[in-house]
């Protein structure tokens, strides 16, 4: 496992680990640092060490940090309610977690002077309380959101099912990406601290890492 007890060192170890992973699809992989549990100080240390892309799962937290750290790129990776749409439209660099056309329209209304890149979140579980859309409804959502001028649909996002078959989720997202966008055209946002190696093997282009980057520090601070 990873060793090293300071953040820049840990970042370099994770980067090296990702670099060494087998990539059957030859894609490039962007590491997003998920900072939802990290302090501003920890985040700033990582940024000073060269990390540019950060992700938050709560709209308000993303807005606050995007304002505080305007030189960094901010990815929205959690559920968005319509009353928080302005935070996303104004401050997100990429919005990963699009689940319905209504919210997409609400966010689009706050996008100015640019097109906001978005990904559609797929849900492979049958559970009712999970986020994302069922694979069978992805095509319809793709067409609806693609028609919104202020948004640009660039790919798909998923979280592995806690019940298992992580590999299966990632390879299904890959297949869906190929069907909707064409071979190697879709950005695939998949893989977290515990499963990013599987995601990269299945073609992930963006991996979302929280604990494996920040945890040792948060432990030390408590
Ligand atoms: C928190 C979170 C992550 C990061 O998870 P870790 O296990 O800490 O790496 C990735 N994606 C989403 C959507 C999250 O909410």
If you had to describe this structure to a student in words, what would you say it looks like?
The protein has 222 residues and is an alpha/beta fold. The protein contains nine helices and eight strands. Strand 3, helix 4 and strand 4 form a beta-alpha-beta unit. Helix 3 packs parallel to helix 4 and helix 4 packs across helix 5. The C terminus is likely disordered. The structure holds pyridoxal-5'-phosphate. The site of pyridoxal-5'-phosphate has 14 residues, from strand 8 and helix 9.
Task: Indicate the proportion of strand residues.
Answer: 15-25%
Count of extended strands: 8
- Largest beta sheet, briefly? 8 strands, parallel
* Mean of residue pLDDT values: 93
Bound molecules: pyridoxal-5'-phosphate
Query: Which term fits the overall shape?
Result: globular
Kindly summarize this structure in a few lines:
With 222 residues, this protein is of the alpha/beta class.
What's the structural blueprint in terms of helices and strands?
Layout: H1 7-20, E1 30-34, H2 40-48, E2 53-56, H3 59-68, E3 73-76, H4 85-91, E4 94-98, H5 101-108, E5 116-122, H6 135-146, E6 151-158, H7 166-181, E7 187-189, H8 196-201, E8 206-209, H9 211-221
Parallel strand pairs: 1-2, 1-8, 2-3, 3-4, 4-5, 5-6, 6-7
Pyridoxal-5'-phosphate (PLP) binds at residues 34, 36, 57, 77-78, 159, 192-194, 208-212.
């Amino acid at each position: 496992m990873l060793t090293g007890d300071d953040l820049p060192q840990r970042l370099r170890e994770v980067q090296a680990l990702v670099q060494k992973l087998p990539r059957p699809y030859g894609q490039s992989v962007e590491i997003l640092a998920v900072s939802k549990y990290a302090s501003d100080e920890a985040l700033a240390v990582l940024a000073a060490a060269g990390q540019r892309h950060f992700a938050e799962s709560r709209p308000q937290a993303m807005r606050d940090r995007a304002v505080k750290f305007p030189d960094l790129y901010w990815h929205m990776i959690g559920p968005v309610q319509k009353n928080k749409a302005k935070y996303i439209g104004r401050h997100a660099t990429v919005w990963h977690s699009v689940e319905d056309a209504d919210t997409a329209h609400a966010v689009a209304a706050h996008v100015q002077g640019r097109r906001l890149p978005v990904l559609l979140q797929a849900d492979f579980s049958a559970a009712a309380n999970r986020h994302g859309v069922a694979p069978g409804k992805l095509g319809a959502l793709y067409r609806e959101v693609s028609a919104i001028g202020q948004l640009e649909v660039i790919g798909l996002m998923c979280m592995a099912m806690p019940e298992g078959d992580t590999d299966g989720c990632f390879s299904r997202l890959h297949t869906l990406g190929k069907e909707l966008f064409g071979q190697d055209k879709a950005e695939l946002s998949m893989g977290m601290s515990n499963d990013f190696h599987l995601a990269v093997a299945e073609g992930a282009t963006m991996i979302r890492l929280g604990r494996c980057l920040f945890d040792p520090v948060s432990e030390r601070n408590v």
